[in-house]
Amino acid sequence: METINATQIANHFMKGRYMKHRGYYGPFGGAFLPEILVATFEELDARFRQAKADKHFWEEYETLMATYSCRPTPLTYAENLTRHFGGAKIYIKREDLNHTGAHKANNVMGQGLLVKRMGKKRVIAETGAGQHGVATATMAAKFGFDCTIYMGEVDVLRQRPNVFWMEQLGATVVPVTDGTRILKDAINEAFRDWVTNMDTTHYVLGTACGPHPFPEMVSWFQSIIGKEARAQIMKAEGRLPTKVFACVGGGSNAMGLFQGFMDDPVELVGVEAGGEGIASGRHASRLCSDDASFGIAQGYKTYFLQNSDGQMKETHSISAGLDYVGVSPILAHMHDQEKARFEYATDTEVVDALKLTMRMEGIIPALESCHAFAGAFKEAANMSTDDIIIINQSGRGDKDIFTVADALGDPKWKEFICAKAGEYKND
Amino acid sequence: MTETNTRTPAPAFLETYIREQRKKKAILLMTHIVMGYPSFDACFEIVRQMVDAGVDLMELQIPFSEPMADGPVILKANQAALDSGATVEKCFEFAQKVSDRFDIPFLFMTYGNILYKYGMDAFAARMSEIGVKGAIVPDLPPEEANDYLSAMKKHDLSAVFIFSPETSDQRMKMIDTHATGFIYCLARKGVTGKETQFSSDMGNYLARCQKSTRLPTAVGFGVKEKADIDFLMGKADIAVVGSQTIREVAQNGVNATGPFIRSLIE
After folding, report:
1. Domains of chain B: which residue ranges?
2. Would you tell me which residues 12-71 of chain A have a C-beta closer than 8 angstroms to some C-beta of chain B?
3. Where are the catalytic residues (chain B) (predicted)?
4. What CATH code is assigned to B12-265?
5. Where in chain A are the domains?
6. Cα separation, A149 vs B91, whole angstroms
7. Domain A2-66+102-215 carries which CATH code?
């Protein structure tokens, strides 16, 4: 019966204004959906429009985030880093202080409220680094939903601690063994689940990508970051920042921060994963390298890292969360319109930025977020002391201890792991 | 085999061909291969055996790295084909070879990005040149298909669209206005290659499909044995056997193709 209801709702909305908005941002976006999912997306879009038009929904969302996820997150003045570079005043937006340790919670809790309104009982999600998976498993536990997380086998191996927590939180984690066995393959697999179980299940897409309305919806929930950051900097400094920096994988934390400053004379800078350098070909830079081209995959149109036949390429980054072939269609449009500037940071630059931030500020950004730090550090010294920059710390790095310890090449950590492995062997 | 000249231009050709064949058979059989899997040579032999065993139409899938509508069997075939060096160019060459050699209509099945990267018009022109009659592109719903539809129309090719059990009557009628050749009806939710219950519910759904289109209907997803095909007689014009033939080849080798197809229709 739920099927019929979903179809009826979708039909109702198709008659009206729905058909006008198909989620295009310039030539980017759209909804390249298999027929089986069309009705499900129409229902989702209808419910999302209702929620967006209902100010009580946003109030409910803000209350939930304030009582469950430490919002508003602070805007920290990085006094030592500022002194170190001797240029712009550096502020850090602390999305790492969200419950579960990353901005991912904003989107997930918002979609959770929407799932409650839709009356669905099961959620599924893809995850790369594991943050989105942990956040979704957390949300599912809180709201009483069944939860399945799809995660590329490669990511399962590099992010075991996050897998551990997802399972402890009651989620089923399915390692995806197809394709390149990373984030994009997990997304494909989540879609395959959804085309079978859409009556009972909502797919909590983790970033501002995918078919309409996901880019818009995820960006809307993440806009809380930019709204807060703008109010906080106005309170602290009485003026706007010159530039704001965010790392860009799918693009949700960047969209979140940028939306606070869309109509302001503020330069928006997105920093992509430069991996081993653009020339090496081992990177995940879609907007600031010439290696990406316009294409259609995973239900939307954007710049993809693909070959001339349209087959997706393997990507590389030190951070699993930025290791993705596509990018938010909204950011792609902003790139082409020159509304935002995109740079990259290499794995080495990222590790240096991490070390410096830990030592100078006692703050441990996630490797993903360190791309934004590295990007900002390249420019801060050349700016005037009257300038202000905000860096979005999208997540915390301490929980990625295995990856970070490897990235830093810490010998004592290795020793500890070997000793621990020995203990388990003797069990 | 058919007397119809497969060099006649689609889309009128494809619909006419299906209707003519239906005068001779209670139901037609369409099969599916992934080009380049397990190899192009093996594919050629599979096609030969299928045609010899009496298959009426064939879908030739151009492998794609992100086949989101395909289930595990076809997904793995896509990857294996790409891993062993299948390219769009090699697929065109293969399609030309089989369409020159065998007297049944061939269709392409692939994803939007393959056409998009090649250029919609160039892709359609090439299809027309090599004698492929139409295409099924599951991630190009009519709303996103303007360029695709005009290219296919320009080159007299059939753009086959899909109905699913989730598609409303109203939407089926909208899709029908864009479709040519036939309508591909998904037997159920989910991806290719999983179990399907051939039940009275499905009978109702297929009746709804037939009522909503002026074109012949094909039913796919989960058709794998003679009983399934018998069930579909009178409810659809074409039964589509996809994943199961790929499974047969994987388990029993290329030479199992002919006997398997015969077991379905004899």
Report:
1. 12-265
2. 14, 19, 22, 30-40
3. 59 (proton acceptor), 70 (proton acceptor)
4. 3.20.20.70
5. 2-66+102-215, 71-101+223-407
6. 35
7. 3.40.50.1100
Tell me how many residue pairs between chain A and chain B have CB atoms under 8 A apart: 126
H helices of A198-328, in order, are: 214-237, 252-258
What are the phi and psi torsion angles at A306 (to 5°)? -145, 160
Helix spans in chain B (H):
12-24, 40-53, 72-83, 88-101, 112-118, 120-130, 146-154, 169-178, 200-212, 226-232, 243-252, 257-265
Q: What is the pLDDT of residues A385-407, one digit of tens each?
A: 999 999 999 999 997 788 889 88
Assess whether pLDDT exceeds 50 at residue A7.
no
- Per residue in A145-174, pLDDT tens? 999 999 999 889 878 889 999 999 999 999
Active-site residues of A: which are they?
104, 126, 394
Are A342 and A288 within 8 A, CB to CB?
Answer: yes
Could you tell me if B102 and B224 are in contact, meaning their C-beta atoms sit under 8 angstroms apart? no
Cα(B173)–Cα(B183) distance, rounded to whole angstroms?
11
For residue B126, the one-letter residue type is R
Q: Which amino acid is at B189?
A: K
Dig out the tokens for A48 from the structure. 């999302």
State the smallest CA–CA distance between residue A115 and chain B in angstroms.
20
Q: Is 60 exceeded by the pLDDT of residue A317?
A: yes
* Tokens linked to A167: 């399972």
The catalytic residue among B59, B156, B237, B248 is: B59
Q: Is the ipTM of this complex over 0.90?
A: yes
Q: CA A113 to CA A131: how far, in whole Å?
A: 19
pLDDT digits (tens, 9 = 90+) for A168-223: 999 999 999 988 888 888 988 998 899 889 899 999 999 999 999 999 999 999 99
Query: Class for domain A71-101+223-407, per CATH?
Result: alpha beta
